[in-house]
Amino acid sequence: MSGLKLRGGSPFPLGAHLDARGANFALFSAHAEKVELCLFDPLGRHEIERLTMPEYTDGLWHGFLPEARPGLLYGYRVHGPYDPATGHRFNHHKLLIDPYARDIVGLFHLTDAHFGYRIGSQRGDLTPDRRDNARLMPKCRLVDESFSWGDDRPPRHPWRDTVICELHVGGYTRTHPEVESTLRGSIAGLSSPAVIAHLKRLGVTAVELLPVHTAVDDRVLAERGLRNYWGYNTVGYFAPDRRLLGRGGISEFKRTVAALHAADIEVLLDVVYNHTAEGNHLGPTLSLRGIDNASYYWLTAEDRRYYQDFTGCGNSLQLAHPRVMQMVVDSLRYWVEVMHVDGFRFDLATTLGRTPNGFDPGCAFLSALLQDPVLARVKLIAEPWDLGLGGYQVGNFPPSWSEWNDRFRDTLRRFWRGDGGLVGEMASRLTGSADIFRHDGRRPTASVNFITAHDGFTLADLVSYNEKHNEANQEENRDGTSENLSWNGGVEGPTEDPAIIELRRRQRRNLLASLLLSQGVPMLLGGDEVANSQGGNNNAYSQDNEIGWIDWSKLGADGDDLSGFIAKMAEIRRLFGLARDRFFDGTEVDENGVKDTTWLRPDGAEMTDEDWSFPNARFLAYVVKGEASAPPVMIAANGHHEALPFVMPTVGKTDRWRIVIDTSRPEGPANGEQHEAGDTLSVPERSLIVLVGSPG
């Protein structure tokens, strides 16, 4: 390939793009002095050409390589000052990953050569390292993005009809008995007929995938024989992680999206635009740090050697910079337009809305997404907190966003473990958290309700452990939260006591029923339906093994497999119009005199102001009226350790009630079991009953 020369090319679009004549390369660096495009042999072992980018336009370095073809491997070397005190960490001895690379290939093992400074120097990170790391770096790969999507169409389920299942691409299918062995643990495994049929049975309308962007393993984890399994350590925002792909490469991801769409299931991505894998000032130089550290990251004003760490991961991306914001918006558009995904969940989203003056819901980035003709049409979900000052922002994101509602999680956990005095809080959480989200025209669907997520106990562990058991992470059980709001039922961990086993199963049903009956957008954790356990590990981020993978051994097992229960709850949610996009206000009345919400005392009378403040209350009953012609539904939740009598009420003209769910009876209520107004129903201890009303 000797004699190659770059032509001027175009500053747009950023990244490497092929056409019939060759490939255009464009890279942003406002402070670089020179940028070199490095080309490699097909195996990525030898650098065969180093070409200086010939043009520099408005902070963009660009050049055109004639006759470039798909499969070409490349990287960048960026020249400039190595002066950490002023924020600059250029080191042309380090090969760098293109932030816009569509494909990143090659195994990555962190060594001392990947650090821009001389490890062990008495001057710390102030002394540059001059070893060449190219042989040990993954390479960017030019790709042909053509793909036949056929008649693929995004399902575009309304928020009110959305039921999310959060899952890890690899862990969800790694041990699934009905997934072809060659597909287990890969993105293609999610397109297996058995997996899709299972998700459909649960009533799931969207899968939320833990990060699929290219990530690297922290050096400390590799030294322990572990890896960054969850993937919250991104180094490439456009390239799917090769470890999640099979032989089909990127096309495999697209085929899986198409298969899920064909089943009317949306695909949402958990994305990590708040920080990168380069860590703090002592981290490696892999991409952005060596391209233009002072532009891409928030640096401390007092000493620009250090990073403002709002994320707890060492650094924070500075989306207040227009080119950094452009990179993130371009990445989001790419995943929608080229990969056909349907939305995003933004990890530590408060960081994305930070300005020099703190979090601003009207900042440029958040505003840009709502105005973008592509991104304004997809689902946007915020994890509305980070670890910086003023980082907790639940309820403060702009209209059109939905947010993870941790107050729903915590309230439901506390109520069902038996804490008293929560009926008012429970009422708010079950009816859409209007106290948090009812402003600026926002709707109940602004609240993404969840009991469990990847971070924390699984549902089976939530009812089986009082304490975390993270010893396998090799951090002396110091990692992960110690406040889990859990209850083990009397024994820590596994037990053969039949009474405790049944209590735990009932508690799982209570929590799942509460979730699926609530207003807002319910999110399930993949594996909770089959009693998946992590052995009490509430921070399995490093466990790419049986701890982190879904255990499907209880699929089909009586009592443990709650797939059928979830399916029935999802059906009740649909049939009776319980998924609303308007908040209840207690004044809407239908033709039978039933208000949209009626809150009831145990004696069947409507609650008064005094009833809400009873300090030891552990019982909540209410009637909700779904939209359209759906009959009213009554829900009675008893978090007490004793059964409580409840008098069947007359609500409007409704005075007959039929039980459809009783979590104390795993086999279900007797067919057609009905109660008239005035009857006394014993609501068993720690149970939830759902009844459907009709006029007498």
Number of DSSP-assigned strands: 31
CATH top level of the largest domain? Answer: Alpha Beta
Tally of DSSP helical segments: 14
Summing up helix and strand content along with how strands pair, one would put the structural category as alpha/beta
| Largest sheet data | 8 strands, parallel, barrel
Task: Produce the secondary structure layout.
Blueprint: E1 15-18, E2 22-28, E3 34-40, E4 47-52, E5 55-57, E6 60-66, E7 73-79, E8 82-83, E9 88-89, E10 104-105, E11 139-141, E12 164-167, H1 169-173, H2 193-202, E13 206-209, E14 213-215, H3 219-223, E15 234-240, H4 249-262, E16 266-271, H5 288-296, H6 322-337, E17 343-346, E18 354-355, E19 358-359, H7 364-371, E20 379-382, E21 402-405, H8 406-417, H9 423-430, H10 434-437, E22 447-450, H11 459-462, H12 498-517, E23 521-525, H13 563-575, E24 597-600, H14 609-612, E25 619-625, E26 632-638, E27 644-647, E28 654-662, E29 674-676, E30 680-683, E31 687-695
Parallel strand pairs: 12-13, 12-23, 13-16, 16-17, 17-20, 20-21, 21-22, 22-23
Antiparallel strand pairs: 1-2, 2-6, 3-4, 3-7, 5-6, 7-11, 8-9, 10-11, 14-15, 18-19, 24-25, 25-26, 26-31, 27-30, 28-29, 28-31
Helix pairs in contact: 8-9, 8-12, 12-13
What does this structure look like?
- It is a single chain.
- By secondary structure, the chain is α/β, with parallel strands linked by helices.
- The protein has three domains: 127 residues, Immunoglobulins (Immunoglobulin-like), CATH 2.60.40.10; 288 residues, Glycosidases (TIM Barrel), CATH 3.20.20.80; 99 residues, Golgi alpha-mannosidase II (Immunoglobulin-like), CATH 2.60.40.
- 19% of the residues lie in helices and 21% in strands.
- It has 14 helices and 31 strands.
- The strands form eight sheets. Strands 12-13-16-17-20-21-22-23 form an eight-stranded parallel β-barrel.
- Strand 1 and strand 2 form a beta hairpin.
- Helix 8 runs antiparallel to helix 12.
- The radius of gyration is 27 Å and the shape is elongated.
- It starts with 14 loop residues before the first strand and ends with a strand.
